[in-house]
Specification:
With 493 residues, this protein is mainly β. Helices cover 12% and strands 41% of the residues. The strands form eight sheets. The chain has a 15-stranded antiparallel sheet that branches.
Length: 493
């Protein structure tokens, strides 16, 4: 997004239930700046700035303490400091903060960065010794004679930084009232200018009591910045995730799904796999997102009528389905649909009987199509099929009524023929576990496939696969189970 900056902080460095906080900064050259700290959700839309079980009397009690900070834009470092001592506690400042020799810089440990457009950015109050050493050669705690507000580089010696580069960690140094990151930007004439962000979402924060440590904010009502700055008001800021690798979750509650969907989309990811299922009547999702490579749309929990509407709209706008899933809620079918721009050559049929499905499958074969999503659910004692057919390379085999106890045998038979699982949908039917499976000779390569996994075993397998360079391709759980979450998963590299 032209003219917009990256975030200085990222979502993956936050723990579950944490968000950044910003307020109206105000004040001279810092008028459009931001003081960023962290808040933790404590339930019922209530938030606090302190770690659980602490009272805020120590720097380490702060949720923001030593969080990573990253460069928002390419630039060169004009001035810096890295070893000023931390203030002893929130609300307590060390003596001798100023710009005279023997003082602590007012920005504490900081960077002043010049950008290509001539503007300068100040990042301030890093924790002692955490600023990357190559960005400041001076290791003194106090300003030395001739250094004014910090160490100033000669123009020819200014270190370069790149957007997204790690800079240091949030601290409480210099003229700081507590652990936070201060950022502000000035134009070439020293006038404050705002900091538009390409990504990130905000929601209003209502302070309660004195100060702004505690307050209330809606957990599920976020607005995308889309190139605008963080408002000069009390808000929670949900920064983007770094756009790399994959983001995969299992057993994700439906009540939290939409906000996570919006966050990942805002971060620049797109969904590759979304599997809906119910356990004990409650809806959960398994999903895999990766950096978006093309325009996309995705929808969850659609009714039959809504599915038709979305497909009609997509057809008008040249979006085509690439993933289809179904699950059952209260005896009613619900659908998940992922579409990509300009991916023609497909056939989609939903909520069909087994005999209808078989006839459609034979018809699709004649047209050179094969099933790529073959979702089966149990409704009123009958299997109902929702299948997406597309053109795809390689030989393939599709089986929709494989009892869990027979899956390994079917897997081994297909593997012996050079075919690996590319799609799985687990479901309960007549009180027994089944799986719908598609095996294909393409893509080939190294893979791992596991079934009958508990949540903890799935997580362990996932960590091991990612560490070994595999990517997640499939995660499915038994739709309609009464109490246990059990999973099938496939990884490939």
């Amino acid at each position: 997004m032209a003219g917009a900056f990256d975030s200085a902080v990222y979502a993956e460095d936050l723990k579950a239930g944490e968000r950044w906080f910003s307020r109206d900064h105000g004040g001279g050259t810092q008028d459009l700046g931001h003081d960023l700290s962290v808040r933790r959700h404590t339930g019922n839309n209530s938030w606090t700035c302190n770690k659980a079980g602490t009272d805020g009397s120590s720097n380490s009690h702060s949720l923001a303490w030593r969080k990573p900070v990253y460069a928002m834009e390419d630039g060169s470092v004009e001035r810096s400091w890295r070893n000023a001592p931390d203030n002893p506690a929130p609300g307590e400042k060390l003596a001798g903060i100023g710009a005279d020799p023997g003082d602590i810089p007012s920005g504490g440990n900081h960077l002043l960065v010049r950008h290509a457009d001539g503007s300068v950015m100040l990042y301030a109050h890093f924790a002692q010794g955490t600023l990357v050493s190559g960005l400041c050669p001076e290791s003194s705690e106090l300003i030395q004679p001739g250094q004014n507000k910090g160490f100033s580089f000669d123009p020819a010696d200014r270190p370069s930084i790149k957007k997204g580069q790690f800079l240091g960690r949030v601290g409480n140094s210099g003229s700081s009232s507590g652990p936070h990151l201060h950022i502000h930007r000035l134009d070439q004439n020293g006038k404050p200018v705002d900091l538009p962000l390409s990504r990130g979402m905000v929601t209003p924060f209502a302070k309660s009591g004195s100060g702004d440590c505690n307050g209330s904010a809606e957990l599920n009502q976020w607005s995308k910045l889309n190139g605008a700055p963080i408002p000069q008001a009390s808000v929670l800021f949900w920064p983007p995730r770094r756009l790399e690798g994959e983001y995969t979750r299992h057993r994700f509650p439906a009540k939290d799904f939409q906000r996570m969907f919006d966050h990942l989309a805002d971060s620049g990811f797109s969904p590759e796999w979304i599997n809906g299922y119910t356990v004990g009547g409650k809806i959960f999702y398994n999903f895999i997102w990766r950096p978006a490579l093309r325009s996309w749309r995705a929808f969850s929990s659609l009714t039959q009528a809504q599915l038709k509407t979305r497909l009609d709209e997509a057809d008008e706008d040249d979006f085509d389905p690439v993933h289809l899933d179904s699950f059952v809620v209260g005896g009613q079918m619900r659908y998940i649909l992922v579409l990509h721009k300009n991916r023609p050559g497909w056939l989609l049929r939903s909520n069909r009987s087994q005999s209808q499905h078989q006839a459609i499958l034979e018809e699709a074969k004649q047209d050179g199509l094969r099933p790529v999503s073959m979702s089966v659910v149990s409704v009123g004692g009958d299997r109902r099929y929702s299948v997406l057919y597309r053109k795809a390379p390689g030989s393939w085999s599709a089986k929709s009524t494989v009892a869990e106890k027979d899956y390994q045998e079917v897997f081994d038979e297909n593997r012996a023929k050079g075919r690996l699982p590319v799609y799985l949908k687990a479901y309960m039917h007549g009180g027994k576990p089944f799986v719908s499976a598609i095996f294909s000779s393409s893509p080939s390569g190294d893979f791992r496939a596991r079934h009958g996994l508990s949540s903890s075993k799935l997580q362990a397998e996932f960590k091991g696969a990612i560490q070994d360079g595999f990517g997640t391709e499939v995660v499915t759980a038994f739709d309609g189970a009464t109490s246990l979450h059990r999973y099938f998963a496939v990884w490939r590299r």
